[in-house]
Write a structure and sequence with these properties.
This is Fibronectin type III domain-containing protein. The protein is mostly beta strands. The protein folds into 5 domains: 33-282, no CATH class; 289-377, Sandwich (Immunoglobulin-like); 392-479, Sandwich (Immunoglobulin-like); 491-582, Immunoglobulins (Immunoglobulin-like, Sandwich), CATH 2.60.40.10; 588-669, Immunoglobulin-like (Sandwich), CATH 2.60.40.
Length: 670
């Protein structure tokens, strides 16, 4: 299936810095600690960015840039890279006066701690000082091979006998209507080259004269063939930078190719320029946890631990090392075991001598040591292990939320066995369990929730092990009875009208002294004649919602409140780019180009309403450029040659649909 979708004229819309895709050599990295924050909650992020700002991702050089965020000029900004629940990269900077900033590129900032290995599917989020946040998902399209091919020679000087074939692939996340392949080499525009352009692309903006291009994209693969009229021109193309471009949405304002990923074939991955943090391959594992050491008789000990983890993309664990420090001789005695081991026995120690014990994890790097304490080595075999002692020092205090307590304790004597965890219970006066929590072996506190303010409970902490469980004496505690307070207001960061719908994203409310139980999102018609308000509810962790069944071309007032046992929060606050009043409508995307020499317009785009829908494009003077019906797939194209509206004034083009949609875009000229 040959691609026929028109390609955005990228060379006319992107800043010059994006076109300088030079290779990097001689990079120098520095060691850094591993970055693992599994399970962290992502900030608000949409896919694609809402604009007018845009996020552009260069996965092969682990670079991210933002542009067009003029409303946040001068503000601090935090970049985060997430893969699933793992936070794998963080960077910080200050947005310049134009709304631009970049990470891992000269003039920008480096990543904190470690330079993440950005891949397709990774979520990039940016959060500004004013609370506005945005995001985009990295596209999976990438070039996999570039090959020069010679066709049979002919006597025709206009026969493109020299080819460059670019092949690649992509996942289901890539819409092939938003996929392009470029080769960039500034030397291609210099005489005597017939190419005449620094970047040649597929699909072509128009019929090229200095080269040929054709391609196909289907079944998750693409092949693009460039033809040249001389071996010298083909050599220039082979020396260029092949790049697969994929984007998440067409422009809705001044930005083009929203959520753009530029995958540059052959670009060096990993750390940035000299002195910036190294990539994940140099990251050490986390330290092992829950190290338990016991004597094993006749100059030996045994140790066990909980398996360690490694940062995302770091080298896998290759083994563990159990180390005993001989403080008499000033040396170490150690043994290494395999990557899957969680225990080891160390022999050759001196009976009657005490040794500090540590365990480290290896993956080409060594983790920080995890202490197993100090143990005295004996000559006799140890007695059979027994159940651990009871936890000591149990304290109970009211926590921040009404009906919640925080329980703390001191670890018990192990008695030759390993504590595997703790069970914490609050018992009502009749002896039933009112609340329960489980804690890890290395924990020393836990919270119990769902209790009744003003009631008295007996709190019991139990140490568990493979050889038995031991409970501490109950601790009596009476909860306070404060007046319940509702949550603070949520903060809306994005409002996206749709076709008969609106999608709203917000940052979580802060609980008062009782938990947030959920959120209510409503859209109230401004005109009382419009049907009743629409509403949707989420759970306590909800941060977005979509209201459907709205009337197109009718205005609605949006509201979000957090709910709790103390009542609802105040109405949400709205960020500077999140309108409180919206009008659902046919959702349009468009690009406009004017060939001034031919006075020919080309306006293309998409619409969300496909039935009986007609698109009209007008220039800045309000004169109609042309009309076109919306096709079944939502696409439409207006081409108008020798058009009297060729003088485009301020370059603005307004596109409307008979279904009620309207956008204004900036046209490009050739």
């Amino acid at each position: 299936m040959t691609r026929t979708t028109e390609k955005n004229a990228r060379s006319a819309t992107v800043p010059a810095w994006l076109m300088g895709r030079g290779r990097r050599t001689g990079l120098v990295g520095v060691s850094a600690a591993g970055l693992i924050l599994a399970g962290a909650t992502a900030v608000m992020a949409a896919n694609p960015p809402a604009g007018p700002g845009n996020i552009e991702i260069f996965p092969d050089r682990d670079m991210v840039a933002i542009e067009g965020y003029s409303a946040q000029a001068g503000q601090n900004v935090v970049f985060e890279v997430r893969r699933g629940s793992d936070l794998i990269g963080v960077a910080r900077g200050v947005v310049d006066s134009t709304g631009f900033y970049e990470i891992n590129h000269p003039g920008g900032s480096c990543w904190d701690v470690v330079t993440p290995d950005i891949r397709g599917g990774d979520l990039i989020t940016v959060t500004f000082e004013d609370g506005v946040s945005d995001g985009a998902t990295t596209g999976s399209a990438a070039v996999t091979s570039v090959e020069g091919v010679d066709l049979p020679a002919t006597a025709d000087p206009n026969d493109a006998e020299w080819q460059v074939v670019v092949k690649g692939g992509h996942g289901a996340d890539v819409n092939t209507a938003r996929l392009a392949v470029e080769i960039v080499n500034p030397a291609m525009r210099e005489a005597p080259s017939r190419i005449g352009e620094r970047a040649i692309g597929w699909p072509a903006d128009d019929a090229p004269t200095g080269y040929t291009v054709d391609g196909v994209a289907e079944n998750g693969e693409f092949t693009v063939t460039y033809g040249f009229y001389s071996a010298a021109d083909r050599a220039l193309a082979l020396a260029g930078a092949p790049t697969a471009l994929s984007w998440l949405a067409e422009p809705t304002g001044v930005e083009a190719q929203l959520g753009l990923t530029l995958a540059e074939f052959g670009e060096i991955s990993g750390p940035g320029f000299g002195g910036w943090p190294a990539g994940p391959a140099t990251q050490a594992p986390s330290a092992p946890t829950d190290v338990h050491v016991a004597p094993a008789g006749d100059g030996s000990i045994t140790a066990s631990w909980t398996a360690a983890t490694v940062p995302a993309d770091a080298n896998p664990i290759t083994g563990y090392q159990l180390i005993a420090e001989d403080t008499v001789l000033g040396q170490e005695v150690s043994i290494k075991v395999g990557a899957n081991a969680t225990s080891a026995q160390l022999r050759g120690l001196v009976n009657g001598q005490s040794y500090p014990i540590t365990v480290v994890v290896l993956n080409g790097q060594a983790s920080a040591p995890a202490s197993g304490g100090t143990i005295e080595v004996g000559g006799e075999a140890p007695a059979e292990p027994g159940a651990p002692g009871a936890p000591t020092g149990v304290t109970v205090e009211d926590a921040a939320l009404a009906g919640e307590v925080r329980v703390s304790w001191t670890a018990p004597a192990t008695n030759g066995t390993r504590v595997t965890g703790y069970t914490v219970q609050a018992l009502a006066e009749d002896g039933t369990v009112a609340a329960e929590a489980n804690a890890a072996a290395n924990a020393s506190s836990a919270n119990l929730t769902g209790l009744t303010p003003g009631s008295t409970y007996s709190v019991v902490v139990t140490a568990t092990s493979a050889t038995g469980n031991t409970a501490a004496e109950p601790t009596s505690h009476t909860l306070a009875s404060p007046e319940l307070t509702a949550p603070s207001a949520a903060h809306v960061v994005r409002v996206q009208p749709g076709n008969g719908s609106v999608t709203v994203e917000w940052q979580a409310a802060t609980a008062g002294n009782t938990p947030v139980t959920g959120y209510k999102l409503t859209a109230t018609p401004v005109d009382p004649a419009v049907p009743a308000p629409a509403a949707v509810e989420t759970g306590p962790t909800g941060t977005s919602g979509t209201l459907t069944g709205l009337s197109n071309s009718k205005a609605y007032t949006i509201d979000v409140v957090a709910t709790s046992a103390a009542g609802d929060s105040p109405s949400a606050t709205f960020g500077p780019t999140a309108p409180k009043t919206v009008t659902p409508a046919d959702q349009l995307t468009a690009t406009a180009e004017l060939r001034t020499d031919k006075r020919e317009w080309r306006v293309v785009g998409s619409a969300s309403i496909t039935a009986n829908n007609t698109i009209t494009a007008k220039n800045s003077a309000g004169v109609t450029i042309g009309t076109a019906p919306v096709q079944a797939d939502g696409s439409w194209t207006i081409r108008s040659a020798r058009n009297s509206t060729a003088a485009i004034g301020n370059g603005k083009v307004t596109v409307t649909s008979s279904a009620g949609g309207s956008i204004t875009i900036t046209a490009t000229t050739k």
